[in-house]
Amino acid sequence: MEIIWLLADLDEDGIYYALDLGATTCRVLRIQLGGRGSKIINHKVEQHQIPQELTSSTSEEFFDFISLTLKEFVEREENGINQVPDERKELGFTFSFPVRQLSISSGVLIKWTKGFAIEDVVGKDVSQCLEEAMSRNGLNMHVGALVNDTVGTLALGHYYDKDTVAAVIIGTGTNACYVERSDALIKSQGLLTNSGGMVVNMEWGNFLSAHLPKTSYDIALDDESPNRNEQGFEKMISGMYLGEIARRVLHRIAEESDIFGESAYHLSVPFILRTPLMAAMHEDDSPHLREVGRILEEQFQMPGISLKARMLVVRVCDIVSRRAARLTAAGIIGMLKKIGRDGISDVASGRTKGKPKRSVVAIERGLYTNYSMFREYTNEAITDILGEELAQNVVLRVAEDGSGIGAALLAATYSSKR
């Protein structure tokens, strides 16, 4: 199936939509394409929270909710715009759960992750489930492309820059994909491009290895998780878990010393320290770390914490985030090394006239985009691993709303080929 390289010369014009289903939210998007040479004229994005009760409801209830959310968005956006009556609209559907892909626009759900447990969807074509819900709710729309978030991000990255060869999602969860030569794969396991390449979805969050630097805190977190022995890499680098790792370290310090006094009870509560709060404390540049003190008092009922203790909290946050960033960088370099784009490998496709090729990695989600120290440590690690000269050829580029916009671009591409 041709998918990425076709986007570089996308000639379609018109309006296309996307639905990006995440762990806790769904984003609805609208893009307007202007045809050859004009790229994306404009785009609009809305984010909606998924009610917790729907994550364990029924297929009909869940897909009705997201189809109605999409319908209301479409009606708001098209209010006052001249439209062809009953014209069918094309939709890109970003569905970041394990799927057995049947075609560019269909796939069967293998299992739920990220806390979802809608049992009557497992084994069904999720595109069909969505189309049936849209039909029930009076929305004339067709799923033109079904992708996960990494492939959507890669598609948008490559749309703007042909040197984009990989994509990384690093937010609440994490995953990556890259473009591989089809002759380098043992079996067809990705989405074929018209350049002889194939998009490989790594599901790297589930990577496990004895070489990963796991600590007693990582082991305990995994043992107590509902998906023990799964998503090992994700539990060390993603936003869902970094705050919890830091909390476990701080809780042990509180148990073995009196640095936090008698007010450290709340440090025993699992997941009370969310990664955004960890980032806010880590990046506190106020005099005497006042922001750290405020967060400890308001969120953990720990008033009057000394400057020495606040400095310790910042140090723990720094160590946890730096390790995660360096592991992320190692994963990125591992992908580039696999396809000969790290500047070191002797793979012919990675060199032009003896010089390393420029390699762009599209990145999306808040851990990299919003956590400046994590971003700084990731970039630093790329340089540490490759050296300053070779690292100049590796570009980590934020692809804002890439997972959704990329899906809409793919829907536009394939709607023109039917």
From TrEMBL:
Gene3D superfamilies in the record: 3.30.420.40, 3.40.367.20
Domain (Hexokinase C-terminal): residue spans on this chain: 166-412
SUPFAM superfamilies recorded: Actin-like ATPase domain
The protein's Enzyme Commission number: 2.7.1.-
Name of protein: Phosphotransferase
Organism: Musa troglodytarum (fe'i banana)
Catalyzed reaction equations: D-fructose + ATP = D-fructose 6-phosphate + ADP + H(+); a D-hexose + ATP = a D-hexose 6-phosphate + ADP + H(+); D-glucose + ATP = D-glucose 6-phosphate + ADP + H(+)
Cellular-component GO terms for this entry: cytosol; mitochondrion
One Pfam assignment: Hexokinase_2
